[in-house]
Specification:
- By secondary structure, the chain is α+β, with helices and mostly antiparallel strands.
- Helix content is 31%, strand content 25%.
- The chain has helices at 12-32, 87-91, 94-97, 140-152, 167-174, 196-208, 218-229; strands at residues 39-50, 55-62, 67-72, 80-83, 102-112, 117-126, 160-161, 182-186, 189-192.
- It starts with 11 loop residues before the first helix and ends in a 16-residue tail after the last helix.
Length: 245
């Protein structure tokens, strides 16, 4: 009797074993994907964007249980980009005013380091990162330089900033989150955890090795020393060797 399917070459016990492993893996994934309201100090190991919830997602490795937990943003942070066009100018561009992903426009002040001055820019806040950029067409970062000259001519050059940054990178920068550092969840809020021993080492290093440094450098030194002095994450590891012939 010929065997018409590849899985027919394996014994029945293999399929039973495979199914049980799959079920076990599914149970583990369910645990790993919990989003607890409270979590002891855990390591920030990854950040991503969850399209189903339209929120930034932080993955935390809890060393005692050796499991990964997720925390979803609850601060209201949304994707955005900046432009030198005013809100009034933007609303006169139909493809911007009627864009399905547009949430709101805000006029804010930014520091222009190249010219050493403060400037006013418009913050374009959207509901999802792909509204800013990433699609073949219809992205705000592409619409502005394409549509502005058609309506206003060449009286100024339209510019768009912070439109090519991955959203999760923008998120952790705005929130000042540090990958690899300890965080805990308290009543649903993500806060940085304190390691007392590491903090004592930081004080001792600053007072001994950097006591003569200018005061304006101390905050920067402290932040770098903290990254180096805090305990490293001890995770489960696996090694895989692939032989190619």
């Amino acid at each position: 009797m010929s065997l018409s399917r590849l899985d027919a070459y394996f014994p029945k016990e293999y399929h039973q074993r495979k199914t049980s492993r799959k079920e076990a893996r599914g149970a583990e994934e369910t645990i790993d994907e919990e989003t607890p309201k409270n979590l002891p100090p855990s390591y920030f190991i990854s950040a991503t964007y969850d399209g189903s919830t339209k929120k930034a997602c932080i993955k935390l490795y809890e060393p005692k249980s050796k499991r990964i937990y997720k925390w979803y943003d609850n601060t209201g942070h949304k994707p955005y980009c900046l432009t030198n066009l005013t809100p009034e100018e933007l609303m006169k561009i139909p493809k911007i005013a009627e864009h399905p992903g547009l949430d709101r426009l805000e006029e804010i002040e930014k520091y222009d380091a190249l010219n050493d001055r403060k400037i006013k820019v418009t913050k374009i806040i959207v509901n999802d990162p792909l509204s800013i950029g990433g699609r073949p067409r219809g992205c705000i970062r592409d619409i502005i330089p394409e549509e502005y000259p058609k309506i206003f001519g060449s009286k100024k050059t339209p510019k768009v900033w912070e439109a090519a940054i991955k959203y999760y990178q923008c998120y952790i920068y705005d929130r000042e989150l540090l990958p690899g550092m300890l965080y805990e969840i308290k009543n649903g809020k993500l806060i940085q955890a304190i390691d007392e021993e590491a903090e004592e080492n930081i004080k001792r290093i600053l007072q001994s090795a950097f006591k003569d440094e200018p005061k304006d450098l101390i905050p920067y030194l402290e932040s770098w020393i903290r990254l180096l002095e805090y305990p490293a994450c001890k995770m489960r590891r696996v090694a895989l060797d692939i032989e190619v012939y």
